[in-house]
Amino acid sequence: MTTKPAAAAARATVYGYPRQGQSRELKKAIEGYWKGRVTADALRETAAGLRRSNWRQLAAAGVDEVPTGDFSYYDHVLDTTVMVGAIPERHRAAVEADALGGYFAMARGTQDVAPLEMTKWFDTNYHYLVPELGPDTVFTADSAKQVAELEEAHALRLTGRPVLVGPVTYLLLSKPAPGVPADFDPLTLLDRLLPVYAEVLADLRAAGAGWVQLDEPALVQDRTPAELNAAARAYRDLGALTDRPKLLVASYFDRLGEALPVLAKAPVEGLALDFTERAAANLDALAAVGGLPGKRLVAGVVNGRNIWVNDLSASLTTLGTLLGLADRVDVAASCSLLHVPLDAAAERDIDPQILRWLAFARQKTAEVVTLAKGLTRGTDAIAAQLAANRADLASRANSPITRDPAVRSRAEAVTEADTRRAQPYAERATAQRAHLGLPLLPTTTIGSFPQTAELRTARADLRAGRIGTDAYEERIRTEIQEVLAFQEKAGLDVLVHGEPERNDMVQYFAEQLTGYLATQHGWVQSYGTRYVRPPILAGDISRPEPMTVRWTTYAQSLTSRPVKGMLTGPVTMLAWSFVRDDQPLGDTARQVALALRDEVNDLEAAGTSVIQVDEPALRETLPLRAADHTAYLAWATEAFRLTTAGVRPDTQIHTHMCYAEFGDIVQAIDDLDADVISLEAARSHMQVARELAAHGYPREAGPGVYDIHSPRVPSAEEAANLLRTGLKAIPAERLWVNPDCGLKTRAWPETRTSLENLVTAARTVRAELNGS
């Protein structure tokens, strides 16, 4: 099919770009700054160099308008908090004394001051810092960062478009500050916040901004009439300003629904919408409201969240349909490219043919530019790219990697009985208590322990060929011995082997399962300086041999206390991978669950009495629209039960979740039928314990009393107070004591002291309960 040229030249753009650099230079500079090895000026210069490199790459690829302001030392929502002056009172002195040090104090906390709460950015694996607001919050504009970065782009003779978190999304993502009543609605502060945005917009106009992008992804969620009215009022007021650049309101991650008419009518110059598969309904909805006459439409037709090559012909068809719905149509990725790795060309260990199926940030940028060229000049102008793209799509569709008949037959044979444990929880609990003999308020950890310098050196030496497998495994044994010895000395009740052999909780398993591809340089930011390499789920999944049994049984041989087997659950294996898009997610989850079920059964057969199957992504993968929840939770909870349902009643199944809002999935947590669940609770002050109690959750739970995403060490009394708060919601016979999450990212000194304090707190409260 030949597409005619568009009436006006289509521009290519993106909403944001990976921040870290090809070799994670930003991570290294920030962590060096934290340790005092890198000066603040050196850190700023590294960051400026990365921004310049990103913009030059985008411009060289053919991007007409580069994003500015999206770069962050830690988190763009935290940057917005600084921009609007909503600094929590407890951090204000630190920020005033040292802006950069205070910024990181808000993100990470200090020994004396707790950080901001952290949770997931919509349904991604990116974490943001939750703004804390109250009726006394005073907003003040600080546009220095946004103006400076725009001027940096202009100095390179590039057209920059500042990208800001929109005011409605900022307030909807906020929470009441500590001490503020829980029913306080931050959205009531909108009229107080809008003048601050007006001042920032005026500053950006003065700095030469022609357009400013205001991101409003919260509007793709179900919103009340009051919230939609607030959005209408916000953009009525901002649109009415005279001293401002043109406004581009952006929404992504899902369909806009009832918010689309609100934004379409707003007095702004443009909208940026997601038109990928999950938001395809935006196309018909836009037509239904009469399009955007006289306005600019930025069409997100390249998936910014996954790594498969775009179907260029299909995207051109969508773009052609959109041409009649707006004054001009430009081309973009569906969201910031923050959520994908930087460059697929850096991967040397992936088969070259398979590599052609993949598009990381640089490749997606090239796709956007190609589509803009095709839209502007017609398909004849990109005939070679279209032919190559068709060949790549056919290669993937026809590859034997994608289909394994044995795996599919086994998945199709699953019955309801395979997903249910044979005994009800009450019977299992009795059998487990008799078998394990644990005290009241049993203590444990979530799984991982700090990865020492010796371990990291050994892993690097193994990769480089400087040592052999035997020497490396001796290091693993030594690490396990040291972790077990510490836990026994500290007095923990259920131990872990510390996971020294694991690089990442998903990647480790992916590398041992068929159907997965691993990258060497596919780093993606999870939070702050924490980067992960999500594996690529390319084909049908099976487990050739046991993955964890060897090291778990070795650890158990060193102690008489129970050692937990540790697995990553099927939903998290999907959520923290780049998942295949050629079959329903539920089908893929069932395949992964069956592979993990084999591992669970092998662990039990080897004598493991406690098995933890982590599902931290269960909540984050929840669809953004309530209408889609039921179908998702049905296959997600079934996949967990399929993984765990084959064990004896006296084998205790644990699961773990962290850094998400759990209140709206408590029924799903119940439906998992795990015997024990551990959850993040320290930063949220035991909110989840209250939510479990309100639901009537009948099983055992361990709401965390130690926030592991901060370097601060909680005192024994602090942990005991959190534990006492938890006891108000969960009976002592069903309450566990544990950290919020795994300890891999922490250092040994703080870990050692924190866990010793955790055990002391449990003993203190246990004694109070026993009246001694």
Quick recap:
The protein is of the alpha/beta class. 43% of the residues lie in helices and 12% in strands.
Q: Could you outline the blueprint of secondary structure elements for this entry?
A:
Blueprint lengths: L24 H10 L5 H22 L4 E3 L7 H8 L5 H9 L1 H10 L9 E3 L6 E3 L2 E2 L10 H12 L4 E6 L1 H6 L2 E2 L13 H17 L4 E5 L9 H15 L6 E5 L8 H7 L4 E5 L6 H8 L3 E11 L9 H11 L3 E8 L18 H4 L5 H17 L5 H15 L7 H8 L12 H12 L16 H12 L4 H22 L16 H4 L3 E4 L6 E4 L2 E3 L3 E7 L6 H8 L7 E5 L1 H6 L9 H21 L4 E5 L2 H4 L8 H16 L7 E6 L8 H6 L4 E4 L7 H9 L4 E4 L12 H12 L20 H22 L3
Parallel strand pairs: 1-5, 4-6, 5-7, 7-8, 8-9, 9-10, 10-11, 16-17, 17-18, 18-19, 19-20
Antiparallel strand pairs: 2-3, 12-15, 13-14
Helix pairs in contact: 1-2, 4-5, 8-9, 9-10, 12-14, 16-23, 18-19, 23-25, 28-29
Q: What is the terminal-to-terminal distance?
A: 83 Å
Report the uncertain regions: none
Give the count of helical stretches.
29
- Portion in beta strands: 5-15%
User: Mind describing the biggest β-sheet?
Assistant: 7 strands, parallel
Can you give the helix content as a percent range?
40-55%
Category from helices, strands and their pairing: alpha/beta
> Per the principal axes of the C-alpha atoms, what is the gross shape?
globular
- Alpha carbon gyration radius: 26 Å
Task: Identify the strand order in the major beta sheet.
Answer: 1-5-7-8-9-10-11
**How many DSSP E strands?**
20
Q: How confident overall, as mean pLDDT? A: 95
